[in-house]
TrEMBL record:
<dbReference type="InterPro" id="IPR005158">
    <property type="entry name" value="BTAD"/>
</dbReference>
<keyword id="KW-0547">Nucleotide-binding</keyword>
<dbReference type="InterPro" id="IPR016032">
    <property type="entry name" value="Sig_transdc_resp-reg_C-effctor"/>
</dbReference>
<dbReference type="InterPro" id="IPR003439">
    <property type="entry name" value="ABC_transporter-like_ATP-bd"/>
</dbReference>
<dbReference type="InterPro" id="IPR003593">
    <property type="entry name" value="AAA+_ATPase"/>
</dbReference>
<feature type="domain" description="OmpR/PhoB-type">
    <location>
        <begin position="1"/>
        <end position="96"/>
    </location>
</feature>
<keyword id="KW-0067">ATP-binding</keyword>
<dbReference type="InterPro" id="IPR027417">
    <property type="entry name" value="P-loop_NTPase"/>
</dbReference>
<protein>
    <submittedName>
        <fullName>BTAD domain-containing putative transcriptional regulator</fullName>
    </submittedName>
</protein>
<dbReference type="InterPro" id="IPR001867">
    <property type="entry name" value="OmpR/PhoB-type_DNA-bd"/>
</dbReference>
<keyword id="KW-0238">DNA-binding</keyword>
<comment type="similarity">
    <text>Belongs to the AfsR/DnrI/RedD regulatory family.</text>
</comment>
<dbReference type="InterPro" id="IPR011990">
    <property type="entry name" value="TPR-like_helical_dom_sf"/>
</dbReference>
<comment type="similarity">
    <text>Belongs to the ABC transporter superfamily.</text>
</comment>
<dbReference type="InterPro" id="IPR036388">
    <property type="entry name" value="WH-like_DNA-bd_sf"/>
</dbReference>
<dbReference type="Pfam" id="PF03704">
    <property type="entry name" value="BTAD"/>
</dbReference>
<dbReference type="Pfam" id="PF00005">
    <property type="entry name" value="ABC_tran"/>
</dbReference>
Amino acid sequence: MEFQLLGAVEAWEQKSQLDLGPRKQRFTFAVLALHANQLVPVDRLVDLTWPARPPRTAHHAIHVSVSRLRRAIADAGAGRCDADIITRGSAYMLKVNPLSIDVHRFRAVVRGAREETDDTVKASLLRHALSMWHGPPLADVTTPDAAAVLCHGLEEARLAALEECLDAELRLGRHASVVDELTDLVAEHPYRQRLQALLMLALYRCGRVTDALDAYRAARARLADEQALEPESRLSDLQRAILCADPALDAPLVRSPSRTQLPHEIWSFVRTEPFSEDVVVDVRDLSKCYGATWAVNGLTFTARKGEVLGLLGPNGAGKTTTLRMLSTVVAPTRGQFCVAGVPGTRHNDVRKVVGVLPENAGCPGHQTGLEFLAYHARLFGHSRGEARDRAARLFALVGLGDGGGARIATYSRGMRQRLGLARALVNDPAVVLLDEPTIGLDPPGQRDVLTLIRTIAEARGLTVLLATHAVPEVERICTGVLILERGRLVSNQVMT
Ligand SMILES: Nc1ncnc2c1ncn2[C@@H]1O[C@H](COP(=O)(O)OP(=O)(O)OP(=O)(O)O)[C@@H](O)[C@H]1O
């Protein structure tokens, strides 16, 4: 489930929007989501909803709203515990993965951008974070009083991120492309002196020296007339530097970064792992570029024996490309990896230690499941008899029971996924790569397949990398999660 607070308040499960009810009910939801995983007293919800004079029925109205919200979430999640509103005394808490809420994702990406030393990456992460905004926070549910209490800090965070982004873009020599945006921003926020300074610098670098000096004069007059303030030294120093054409103000020479200047470290703000003998997957700076698109950029992580690591991200985040590189189907543009001690450059050896369930695994409908598995066991060099035994064992392991004699064409989607999983295990791999293994399955089918994956991983000490765009899948079975956005790792967490 995905929740949007930056703009109109909305909740989405897959592609359907949840009905969060009338305005006050959506407002209650928004307050709980802003304080995800924290208790919010009913009294506070009442004060925020009716700041002037709450009606006598106010507490009751909040209880009714919460119970309707709870039902809407449960119905949409079809029984999966994706998010839930729990009661503790006279307080409520929305229990949810905070990264399914845009406000918390925004803050996480901005935090990551601040740690980034490469301005290209920093600017692109900040632009991405800013793109999560679809309007003022809680736009369709809040009142001016409540917005002043709940949203002021958020709006300030957006402006600070925007200033940092424009600053990085100016350092990258992009003055021509940001000057109009800066002009609009200064008109909208006339007292933000950092924006004024950025505009003056952009104008100067565009060769518009008079406009840069006019901008300073206008800013100084406005500050004096309306705020009785003097400009900060950053503005007056900049004006002096412009007047004497200080070379320090010149636009930087834009060079394409050399290989050694590219960021090799990802920012992992939760999980850091020391090297250990247990490490079965070791990925360093793995990157893939298609034309101008970095499908995966600078991915670094490790996975230990027995770990079920989720690769979580929206469409196009780079999950499939990562798995395709690790299964040696696609060659990395940069970086390296090692699986079970085998370097990624030794393709044939990697394929012996890796099992793969691709996103759209095709199975020949005319074969029986057992024939299909035995065929693949033969490809890994097993004798005919061994291949048959192995096929039967795996068939039972994935819970396909007695259906071995039936043709695959008669299998349900869930049975095909189980078969695909069995095929991924046919070579006794150390690592299994699963790309959206539950796609197209109904909720009970999804639960079954996920439980099966976890059980097999535990029983066999397998390391599993599971690509998915569904937060609940990760919560259900993963021991850790890597969150990808536009090819970059934005978070690396242990699941608790
Ligand atoms: N063969 C290709 N040629 C060109 N671009 C590609 C190719 N494969 C992937 N891409 C691009 O790389 C980016 C990452 O794609 P990828 O399929 O790895 O993402 P994903 O996270 O698996 O997405 P999804 O959930 O939609 O499967 C996308 O912008 C995609 O268009």
